[in-house]
């Protein structure tokens, strides 16, 4: 049986603050809300070993597997996963960028796989459109998890592998969409960001930007999800 990692064993944002792995910033983008710090986790490892209700696959438009995280998920899930994906998009009809579809997890520890098709980065494409498509991947994935009564979900950093999306910008999108969603939905107890093994730089990016979206702060602010106006555009990328 493959290794299985419980989300409760993965460090939360609150624990990262407590261990000084991350530190508060002077100008966070969102107000402090302590109750969120125990719901967001960060780790480096194999997403196929995380025993959550749903893992998100950084899929290509065919949903038929590929390299990196996508290939690892298909290999761990077994051939039934590719068959289920073919039933979602038969023939030559691709899944559009920004969309996400859910299938069973088959041989994975997770109940479901949510296949999110992120944008392929190009200097010739509109950056705002690509950011919107990437944000949609996170929103649809989170909503799909809730719609299927999931209480836990694990994400890779979508589109930052062979699709080439700049890691700093992708992390901002991931953290922003997660912050907004968790403010408005209480069903998800655990959202785990999983760094692909060996990509230490990705972990440092998350550690740098998490405090802007999930600050520790002196108090628990509950009245608004709106960004702090004084902090807009303050993050040094």
TrEMBL record:
<feature type="domain" description="Macro">
    <location>
        <begin position="27"/>
        <end position="214"/>
    </location>
</feature>
<dbReference type="InterPro" id="IPR043472">
    <property type="entry name" value="Macro_dom-like"/>
</dbReference>
<dbReference type="InterPro" id="IPR002589">
    <property type="entry name" value="Macro_dom"/>
</dbReference>
<protein>
    <recommendedName>
        <fullName>Macro domain-containing protein</fullName>
    </recommendedName>
</protein>
<dbReference type="Pfam" id="PF01661">
    <property type="entry name" value="Macro"/>
</dbReference>
């Amino acid at each position: 049986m493959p290794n299985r990692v419980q989300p409760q064993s993965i460090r939360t944002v609150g624990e990262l603050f407590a261990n000084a792995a991350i530190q508060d910033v002077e100008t966070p983008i969102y107000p402090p809300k302590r109750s969120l710090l125990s719901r967001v986790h960060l780790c480096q490892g194999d997403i196929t070993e995380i025993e959550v209700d749903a893992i998100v696959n950084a899929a290509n438009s065919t949903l038929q597997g590929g390299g990196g995280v996508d290939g690892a998920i298909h290999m761990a899930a077994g051939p039934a996963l590719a068959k289920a994906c073919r039933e979602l998009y038969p023939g030559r009809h691709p899944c559009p960028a920004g969309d996400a579809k859910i299938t069973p997890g088959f041989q994975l520890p997770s109940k479901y796989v949510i296949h999110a098709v992120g944008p392929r980065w190009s200097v010739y494409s509109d950056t705002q459109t690509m950011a919107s498509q990437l944000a949609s991947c996170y929103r649809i994935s989170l909503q799909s998890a809730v719609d299927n009564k999931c209480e836990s979900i694990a994400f890779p950093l979508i589109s930052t592998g062979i699709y080439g999306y700049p890691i700093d910008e992708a992390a901002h999108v991931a953290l922003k969409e997660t912050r907004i969603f968790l403010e408005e939905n209480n069903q998800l107890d655990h959202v785990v960001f999983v760094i692909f093994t060996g990509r230490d730089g990705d972990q440092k990016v998350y550690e740098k930007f998490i405090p802007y979206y999930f600050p520790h702060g002196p108090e628990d602010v509950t009245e608004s999800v709106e960004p702090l106006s004084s902090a807009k555009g303050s993050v040094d990328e």
